[in-house]
Design goal:
heterodimer, A: 332 residues, alpha/beta, six-stranded parallel β-sheet, 8 strands, B: 340 residues, seven-stranded mixed β-sheet, five-stranded mixed β-sheet, 12 helices, 14 strands, binds thiamine diphosphate
């Protein structure tokens, strides 16, 4: 920890703005998704990550297109932060043939290798073992590519987490394990399901550095991700980053979130990273309010375009059931 | 040297067992293609080259970056193989025994088998899972199960259970180059009984059955170590004047319907024999398919022999009763032949 605090990398003005751009892109996209579901224009299970924008945004500015991510059902923010184009993303959420996965994966299983989105899984904890395989491939290829495995705090209680961290450490894999700790696993409070007060402490058991980071502070996430990615690229192995945050919208769209108290929700909302970061950028003279508003408007237009594009796309034909089971088509 | 008939081309053969044949296939595949990787518990030479020595010599030849011993972490093993496969490699992952695939079931059925489909064809998972199983060694309930039906029931993964060393060599060569995940079950005795393997045995296509012996009264379909039992019954039935066509399925999913239907259509009778439990076993699928296709043309209902509805027992006497034995096959075949 001390090493990172001493040589703390800080994002320059351009990078800070880029982090903000990604955060707004996530927030606008999330808002639009919930609106479209509410209006009955799309039917899909949706796991909002509202409140968690900062984490993948501050990490993605440090990643290249060919760096990979393996993420989870609550991971559309991770993809949007990785700059996945919104048209195929929306077409996939709407189950259309022009979606990233021809409408066969849906919002819980998006894949978009061009932007490094390799696997999105609906099985808690399973992003980590697969991320290791990409790490192994990168070592064999002799590239400096890194893979980020995103997962939730609940996932850190699954066997796959423990197996994956152990293997990554023994094999010194260029993988960054990023836990987005929003305090809840479905409806279960963190402390009722997890044996340690900080998930980062589990890194000790696997012989890798582990940090607990303020997941609502882009500068803190950036500094730690910078160190973790540098370590991975230098061949020194994996790091566990626990980014503490809060999800504002309940577990799944429509969830009554009665398991959260009004007070804690209000307190979390007061710490909403978006307005705070916006104010910081203005206070630090990195951008004016007008510039940030213009950016938001541009992103809104991009989101709206993606929605209308998706709605106009065709549904996949029934033949798709026989395709992509194997490389060869299954005979009728 | 062996020749089938005087006209057949002379094929030079060598005697080897399944274990040596797999080792030869892995050696050849790794030599020909630098993308082929091997991983699993204790598989590198430092750790002994695998529990039964299938991977012996590989790490010495190709290095421990391509031939990696792993911790005892089945989910991590299959996960790493999936990621490496999607990252452009062709990993061969060993799960020491088929019972331990249960510990990695999520990775196998939810990920390896489905990623191509869920990604709309963008993801390829060209990996092989090697695993060993089979009753007959008094290892009891947790070390000898046949779970092929579990995997056959999952779309997106191929299931191969070879019998002869030649088939091991040929099917391995195909499986490693296959663009999809393949699980190969090394079934007990099949690893240890030496047989003739053609020199330079090349790939044998997945999904193709082998008509081992031609006959006209009844077709017996089987695979894996149960083929040894079937061949004993075949000898006895032949002596008793029953003409048996024996089909070794080799690939259980996708299975060779064409060959089985052609054979059952010709003989008019079919008996499926496998080591897996008879209940909901692969025999049920084969029987249903054949009856749908050949209703009215069969001379007897399709017979099925498999393990009883219990775990693999320890006591030798019980284990013998658990496994289908030649007399049962003979009796069932004769019953079916007598029916019409
Ligand atoms: C193996 C498995 N068990 C249970 C579930 C059902 N489930 C879906 S999300 C979830 C909670 C996961 O919480 P966490 O890992 O903290 O992630 P978050 O949703 O908070 O981002 C559960 C139990 C599942 N999808 N997979």
């Amino acid at each position: 920890m001390s090493e990172i605090l001493e040589n703390r990398a800080t994002p320059d003005a351009k990078t800070q703005l880029d982090i903000y751009r990604r955060m707004i892109r996530i927030e606008r996209n999330d808002d639009a998704t919930r609106t479209q579901i509410r209006r009955g224009r799309i039917t899909a299970p949706y796991y909002s990550a509202r409140g968690q924008e900062c984490i993948p945004s501050a990490i993605s500015v440090l990643l290249n297109n060919d760096d990979k991510i393996c993420t989870i059902y609550r991971g559309i923010h991770d993809m949007v932060a990785k700059d996945m184009p919104l048209r195929p993303l929306w077409a996939e959420i709407c189950g259309r043939v022009d979606g990233t996965c021809k409408g066969k994966g849906g919002p819980m299983h998006l894949t978009h290798p061009e932007t490094g989105v390799m696997v999105t899984t609906g099985i808690v904890g399973s992003s980590m073992p697969i991320a290791n395989g990409f790490g192994w491939a990168a070592l064999l290829d002799g590239t400096k590519q890194v893979t980020v495995a995103y997962f939730g705090d609940g996932a850190s209680n699954i066997g796959a987490f423990h197996e994956a961290l152990n293997l990554a450490s023994v094999w010194k894999l260029p993988v960054i394990f990023v836990c987005q700790n929003n305090g809840f696993a479905e409806h279960t409070r963190y402390e009722n399901g997890t044996s340690v007060d900080q998930i980062s402490k589990r890194a000790i058991g696997y012989g890798m550095p582990g940090y607990t980071v303020d997941g609502n502070d882009p500068v803190d996430v950036y500094a730690h991700a910078h160190a973790a990615i540098a370590r991975a690229r230098a061949g020194e192995g994996p790091t566990l980053l626990e980014c503490k945050t809060f999800r504002f919208m309940g577990h799944v769209f429509g969830d009554a979130d009665g398991y959260m108290t009004k007070e804690e929700k209000a307190e979390a909302m007061a710490k909403d990273p978006l307005p705070i970061y916006r104010q910081k950028l203005i206070d630090d003279g990195i951008a004016t309010a007008e510039e940030l508003d213009a950016l938001t408007a541009k992103i809104e237009a991009e989101v709206n375009d993606a929605i209308e594009f998706a709605m106009a796309c065709e549904y996949p034909s029934d033949d798709e059931l026989r395709r992509d089971v194997f490389a060869e088509e299954i005979p009728a | 040297m062996s020749t089938d008939t005087l006209d057949a081309p002379v094929v030079e053969t060598v005697k080897m067992n399944g274990l040596q044949a797999i080792n030869a296939a892995l050696m050849e595949a790794m030599e020909a293609d630098p993308k082929v990787l091997v991983l699993g518990e204790d598989i590198a030479d430092n750790e002994g080259g695998g529990v039964v020595g299938v991977t012996r010599g590989l790490s010495t030849k190709f290095g421990t970056m391509r031939v990696r011993s792993t911790p005892i972490s089945e989910q991590a093993i299959i996960g790493a193989a999936i990621g490496a496969a999607m990252g452009g490699y062709k990993p061969v992952a060993e799960i020491m025994l088929m019972n331990f695939t249960t510990v990695a079931m999520d990775m196998i059925v939810n990920h390896a088998a489905k990623l191509r489909f869920m990604s709309g064809g963008q993801s390829q998972v060209p990996m092989v899972i090697r695993t060993l199983t089979g009753a007959g060694n008094q290892t009891a309930g947790q070390h000898a199960d046949f779970y092929e039906a579990w995997f056959c029931h999952t779309a997106g993964i191929k299931v191969v259970i070879p019998w002869t060393p030649a088939d091991f060599k040929g099917l391995y060569l195909s499986a490693i180059q296959d663009p999809d995940p393949v699980i190969i079950v090394e079934s007990g005795k099949t690893l240890f009984v030496p047989m003739d393997v053609p020199v330079g045995q090349g790939p044998i296509p997945l999904g193709k059955a082998n008509v081992v012996a031609p006959g006209s009264d009844i077709t017996i379909v089987s695979y894996g170590q149960m083929m040894f039992t079937v061949m004993q019954a075949y000898e006895e039935l032949t002596k008793a004047g029953v003409s048996v066509e024996v089909v070794d399925l080799r690939t259980i999913s996708p299975w060779d319907k064409e060959t089985v239907l052609a054979s059952a259509g010709k003989t008019g009778r079919l008996l499926v024999v496998h080591e897996a439990g008879r209940n909901f076993g692969p025999g049920a699928e084969i029987a249903a398919t054949v009856q749908e296709a050949l209703f009215g043309k069969l001379k007897a209902p399709v017979g099925r022999l498999g393990a009883p509805y219990c775990s693999v027992p320890f006591a030798k006497k019980l284990e013998d009763a658990f496994l289908v034995q030649p007399p049962e096959i003979i009796a069932e075949a004769q019953r079916l032949v007598a029916m019409g």
